[in-house]
Hints:
The complex is a heterotrimer.
Chain A (H helix, E strand, L loop, with lengths): L5 H4 L26 H14 L6 E5 L7 H4 L3 E4 L5 H11 L4 E7 H7 L1 H9 L5 E6 L2 E2 L5 E2 L18 H4 L5 H6 L4 E8 L3 H19 L5 E7 L3 H4 L3 H15 L3 E5 L2 E2 L3
Parallel strand pairs in A: 1-2, 1-3, 3-4, 4-8, 7-8
Antiparallel strand pairs in A: 5-6, 7-9, 9-10
Helix pairs in contact in A: 2-9, 5-6
Chain B lengths: L2 E6 H11 L4 E4 L7 H9 L1 H4 L3 E4 L3 H13 L4 E5 L1 H6 L1 H10 L3 E7 L15 H5 L11 E2 L4 H18 L2 E7 H5 L1 E6 L8 H7 L15 E2 L6 H21 L3 E4 L6 E5 L1 H16 L4 E6 L1 E3 L3 H9 L4 E6 L5 H9 L4 E6 L8 H13 L2
Parallel strand pairs in B: 2-3, 2-4, 4-5, 5-7, 6-7, 11-12, 11-14, 14-15
Antiparallel strand pairs in B: 1-8, 6-13, 10-12
Helix pairs in contact in B: 1-2, 1-8, 4-6, 12-15, 13-14
Chain C lengths: L1 E9 L4 H14 L3 E6 L9 E9 L11 E6 L2 H7 L3 E9 L14 E4 L2 H7 L6 H12 L5 H11 L8 H14 L1 E2 L1
Parallel strand pairs in C: 1-4, 4-5, 5-6
Antiparallel strand pairs in C: 1-3, 2-3, 6-7
Amino acid sequence: MAELSVQDIIKPENLVYEKTKLMTDKTLSYCPGCGHGTAHRLTMEVIEELGKENDTIGIAPVGCSVLAYEFMNIDMQQAAHGRAPAHATAVKRLWPNKVVFTYQGDGDLAAIGTAETIHACNRGEQIVIIFINNGIYGMTGGQMAPTTLPEMKTSTSPFGRDVASMGYPLKITELISNLPGVQYVSRQAVHSPAAARKAKRAIKKAFQNQIDNKPGLSFIEIVSNCNSGWKMTPNDSNEWMEENMFPYYPLGDIKVDGKLIEK
Amino acid sequence: MGELKLMKGNEALAEAAIRAGADGYFGYPITPQSEVIEYLMAEKPFDRTGMVVLQAESEVASINMLYGGGGSGKKVMTSSSSPGISLMQEGISYLAGGEVPCVIANVVRGGPGLGDIQPAQSDYFQSVKGGGHGDYRLPCLAPASVQEMSDFVPVAFDLAFKYRTPVLIIADGLIGQMMEKVELFDQMPRLTDQEVIEKYPWATTGKPKGKERRILTSLDLDPHKLEKHNQHLHAKYNEIKENEVRYELIDTDDADYLFVAYGSSARICQKSVKLAREKGIKVGLLRIISLWPFASDVIKEFTAKGIKGFLSVEMSMGQMVEDIQLAVQGKTKVDHFGRVGGVIHSPEEVVEALEQKIIGG
Amino acid sequence: MTEEIIIAGFGGQGVLSMGKILAYSGIMQEQEVSWMPSYGPEMRGGTANVTVIVSDERISSPTLTYYDTAIILNQQSMDKFEETVKPGGVLLYDPNGISKHPSRTDITIYKIEGAKIAADMGNTKIFNMVVLGAYLQIKPIVKLENVIKGLKKSLPERYHKLIPLNEDAITQGMKNVITT
């Protein structure tokens, strides 16, 4: 087979994949191998496919995805650490016809912002929360997170997370799924094409719930890797995630149409 | 003439929020201002004007709800008292940095810490010097009557949107809990969603078709860009200083001495002026209305005209007095008299303090 | 005209609402008014007091050291406020429950058997209106018709049927106040 030139490759008929126009052209600041980029893209694809690019307001957190607004090509606010659900609560209540979501990491959502998370869920705010759980504080350099696994080493648990003194990994997703204000809860991953496809379906369902004016909050957890923080190669981190994170944080729907899924 | 009512300051503030066409109130109960949210909940403003009222889980949530609401171009407000306002400081700093308009009322109580629930004015530094981190200022209005608790709400909203900044209303437990006659202004219309979109192109209301998206953030990792942003904020603050100084002069024409006071203290000083004048002491009152920007130029003028001394009367150990000293530059006598911890000075002891600290001192 | 009044007694005696009705009456005749209560936990079952000022002019300090009139309804308040009446001023009290009667000679002291009269009228809740009537007999700063208007303003609609009873109580207070 003859070598294809670049010009041959980029012919329109060869197009198999196009970046959503709701992602900006700015180079992602995430580490190579990190799941954030995929999670961003899936979220933006969903908003584009639902035709809501002119009606969506996103709230960025503090953490690795603090700069989400640089990459997501929609109107966005950047919240103080943990407070994104408070922003989203007000935006949605004052603009009930708009689509409102937060995008938050585990430190933001499950540590400093626990109160805002639980109370937004409990009030049944009609918003979407996209929660990226990588079990570590990435941006500040790999400190222990509320979701860090037992015995897992981080820069603030250098001998491993000792649950007796440091507490247990917080299953915030299971916690909030028990609240009547929550409509839909699903835990997904984005480390493989198959997982990403499933995750996208879940994200789409979450946004569709809001557009369909279904009562309550839709919550998507994405279990992700942090190869830099975990000090592994991207591939190793994905394997480690499958072996260690998934048993503790099992994937799949947890609550659908306001009903907990029997396991 | 508007509707006359006998109302608590807190109730007047709440009613004024509805009438000013506010879109949302987000708050958390704390004495001595819980009547604000109680009144709003009882009044069902959602039925009256479509205004949203929400009891948040904390003051931290309330202030960040203001960011969400104000950031999307809506007129939003919260109220609290000292400890709650301390909790809000992070959010206030973000609001100032992100240039998000909103109104925050502080019905001040005794501190520090949990303090007590009685009136105080010990949050002056926190209010006017920037209570949170970073280099920012907030316009700050101090009502001295129930009437002004009502009247200052639309003024505060106007300032907030004119300059894209959070605006403080600083009252105290006395102004909040006291009832007085108040003439309510007529209902102002809320802006429609379309009006908000047209009027506030910076607001995150959904990316307009064919236009750039809007981002509200206080983050800029590039030091040079952040320096520029700070310079931009500073220029805005200078404009506010130029245009928004508010004060009232009472019996100052022939005055040898001036009380300088705001809020409840200014009310008490009005009585002290009468008592002192009965004794033959020519004293007047400079009532500070905008704590920031501060009426420094007025104080400079009085100093130049040969006023013999200023007594700052505050329910604090001496905070505003520092701004008076800065304006006076040592050219005449300046002293402070204050009661604290929720103790309110009597009009008589204010006169005694003038006699001892300024006239005889 | 400026009348500076302290009303003090137990929480539950209607101290605050008496002040409120008086203030509302002032508004009805286009006067300036202020009503400043002691507030906080002490109100819950403890002593309550309120400073009411009715004036033809802009009101200066809403909290005061000395008063034109003190209306005193329990012993603790007597201990605290007898000395705060301006020389030449008025002290009105209900002797019910008072063990140490006022002794100043530079003020005029009046008595009203408010609790007893209210009980005789079959409704202890109108006690404060009896006392208000007594006060208005001594110092008719507001017209009775404006008090009735004030009552209408300050009472929820569902209590308006009680206004005639309140009016009777005020009249009884006016008739029965005595100087000591």
